[in-house]
Design a protein that fits this description.
With 153 residues, this protein is of the alpha+beta class. It has two domains: 7-47, Orthogonal Bundle (Arc Repressor Mutant, subunit A); 60-145, 2-Layer Sandwich (Alpha-Beta Plaits). The protein is 35% helix and 20% strand. The protein has five helices and four strands, in the order H-H-H-E-H-E-E-H-E. Strands 2-3-1-4 form a four-stranded antiparallel sheet, covered by helices on one side. Helix 2 crosses helix 3 (35-47).
Length: 153
């Protein structure tokens, strides 16, 4: 049987995306439902993997990661979707996102680093990957909206 999401579920998801630490009673009052009903719905959304994880939104500049860089990578033919081939890239902790894409580049990601030397180190580690044949990097100047800000509800 297929899992169904109703308008109340969407409102719960939207509120949790905005602030997952909102107290249950406050959230239930805001949504006009009983706190027990809210908790049951949240548990169901978690069980069905609609809600996969709760995360903290971090100001990385305040913890020393001053540079945010967009990475473009070309890989050996037919390798971008091969998770086994990507595992060395996925181990690079500074890479925060990594996507297989269409177009000129096979992989596009982003990383956070402390300074230019740290960026050079990360680019060199990426270059050691057996599948990456070319990289291009772009330093972001401003982040107007990030993935953590996405809330389509």
């Amino acid at each position: 049987m297929r899992f169904k999401i109703d308008q109340t579920d969407i409102e719960i998801i939207s509120e949790l995306v905005d602030n997952a630490k909102t107290p249950t009673k406050e959230l239930a009052r805001k949504l006009g439902i009983h706190p027990n009903t809210l908790l049951q719905r949240i548990k169901r959304l978690e069980k069905e993997q609609v809600i996969k994880k709760y995360m903290a939104k971090v100001d990385y500049m305040k913890v020393g990661y001053d540079l945010h860089v967009i990475l473009m990578m070309r890989v050996r033919k037919g390798r971008a979707g091969d998770m086994e081939q990507l595992k060395d890239l996925l181990k690079i902790k500074e890479i925060e996102t990594l996507y297989a894409t269409t177009g000129m580049w096979d992989l596009i990601g982003s990383c956070r680093v402390k300074n230019r030397q740290h960026l050079l180190d990360v680019i060199q580690r990426i270059g050691k990957s057996k599948i990456v044949i070319k990289t291009s990097s772009y330093l972001t100047l401003f982040a107007y909206k990030g993935a953590q800000d996405f809330n389509p509800f």
